[in-house]
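Q: Convert this sequence to structure tokens.
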Amino acid sequence: METGLKGRVAIVAASSQGIGLSTAEAFATEGCRVAMCARNGQKLEAAAEKIRKQSRVDVFTQAFDVTETRAVHDFVEAVIQKFGSVDVCVTNAGGPPAKGFLAASTEEWRKAVDANFLSTVYFAREVIPHMQRQRWGRIITLTSISTKQPVPDLVLSNAVRAAVVGLVKSLSNEFGKDGITVNNVGPGYTATDRLKELARVRSAAQGKSEDEIFAAWANDAALKRVAEPREVADAIVWLASDRASYITGQTILVDGGAYKGL
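A:
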């Protein structure tokens, strides 16, 4: 399927591992020039080198914390300087810790807002003017099934990621006239280090083995398995492509049928 992405410039945040890395790989496979960022510079560069060898595309990396507005600004400016444009921006950040409401501290709430909401604000604020000038752009946020169906023990994620959906809808309405689409992808249970962390928390709390926890998650999905990161990445690439040119302001769940609503 022709995606129209060859030669485009795609920013993928938090892309040294997990869904972010799979997304960067998927864009590179489509022939995009890719800009990757994460906090761990060594791990980030190793991931980028793997992509360069696999796809023979130009990959730019910069290590920084996406909660720092100045760092996001400098990164986007560096991407523009290197590649001349930015066409796609995938916002992403590691999820907040698994906590119940009374166990979550005020500082943990602040960190969750910074990482999982304000980082999206920072990226959008930087890339939108460039996308407006070229009359084309794709912003895709990466959140969770929790935006539709709250997940037990993830009160921080349940609350903060819902705010991202409100932002997505607002941006799609404001900047659609400029040829910019803004959408959200909400993964269900996906085989990442983040899911292993949640399995450890639930294992300790419920007195079950981690294998039993994973089996329960798999059983909760209509497809009876957890997702692979590449399956989420494929949905992101599709939303960025010309094939999804009339889709904006939407949340697309990649959850194997785990969401029980209509």
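The chain has a mean pLDDT of 96.
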